[in-house]
Amino acid sequence: MLSYRHAFHAGNHADMLKHFTLFLTLEYFNLKDKPYWYIDTHSGAGLYDLRGEQAQKVGEYRQGIARLLQADALPSDLSDFTGRLKEILPDENLYCGSPWLARFLTRECDKLRLFELHPADFAHLQNNMKEARLGKRGQIAQADGYRGLISLLPPPPRRAVVLIDPPYEEKQDYRRVVQTLQDALKRFESGCYLVWYPCLNREESRKMPEQLKKLMPENYLQAELYVHKAREDGFGMHGSGMLVINPPYLLAKKLADTLPKLTEILAQDDAARFVLDYQIK
Ligand SMILES: C[S@@+](CC[C@H](N)C(=O)[O-])C[C@H]1O[C@@H](n2cnc3c(N)ncnc32)[C@H](O)[C@@H]1O
């Protein structure tokens, strides 16, 4: 059942942590003069109109990108991020999805492989990527992203950044992420895998990052950003996390330098905090 639509959530606090981590990772991959693949298993629509009915329903972006763009005295990596966002999206009424960000942060020599299962969001993704002139270096498939990822590994250049960003509306996403990572690492052990997950008062959301760390206990990074207190009834997402397997060199330092400010900007009450845990080979 595909009920999740990212348009309701685009530009929220979780997108800030996810897209900033993706930005730092792609910037690092761009430093080496060798092509790589960007694989997005759950792409969404690629671009969102913040004035649209869905984004306006709850207005989650007001607690995310709107705050970040108004903030001052940003540490340099965060201001580089907002600077790039303004370049690739001059209209502040729009916010990018991960494929749009990757389209503009990768180089002509790099390739993009995008998966999206929802028929309406797949159609939006195709149109938006056409608008972004993705061209021949990108392929978009209306297919299951978990299986699609495995079918591409190992990628020909033997360098890849993989974003795994499911909706987690169904419990099976937690199990499938762990299983897919296990299979992916067998085929392509050196890939850089970024997994986004919600921080909820649910056993699966607490257990999954721990299971992922065990797949690569000597080379992972975990960043979590909580924006408010957990609700007593246990519902709602009070924070989110990124679990990176084979993180880029310096990602830990860059996040240590920026997460205090990002947390301050996104804080909705005094329970806001971040977690940064890593093991680097
Ligand atoms: C959280 S959104 C993705 C947001 C996007 N990565 C971004 O950062 O802009 C998750 C997307 O996954 C899609 N989806 C759900 N199950 C899927 C599957 N098995 N394979 C591919 N896409 C799927 C949903 O339709 C939804 O658009």
From TrEMBL:
PROSITE patterns hit by this protein? N6_MTASE
The enzyme's main class, written as a single word, is: transferase
Record InterPro entries: DNA_methylase_N6_adenine_CS, RlmJ, SAM-dependent_MTases_sf
Q: Which residues form the active site?
A: 165
Catalyzes what?
Answer: adenosine(2030) in 23S rRNA + S-adenosyl-L-methionine = N(6)-methyladenosine(2030) in 23S rRNA + S-adenosyl-L-homocysteine + H(+)
Q: Which UniProt keywords apply?
A: Methyltransferase, RNA-binding, rRNA processing, S-adenosyl-L-methionine, Transferase
Its cellular-component GO annotations read: cytosol
**From the UniProt record, which GO molecular function terms apply?**
23S rRNA (adenine(2030)-N(6))-methyltransferase activity; RNA binding
EC number(s): the record gives: 2.1.1.266
For the biological process aspect of GO, one term held by this record is: rRNA base methylation
Q: In UniProt terms, what function does this protein have?
A: Specifically methylates the adenine in position 2030 of 23S rRNA.
What assembly does the database describe for this protein? Monomer.
What family does the entry list? Belongs to the RlmJ family.
Q: What is this protein called?
A: Ribosomal RNA large subunit methyltransferase J
Question: From which source organism is this entry?
Answer: Morococcus cerebrosus
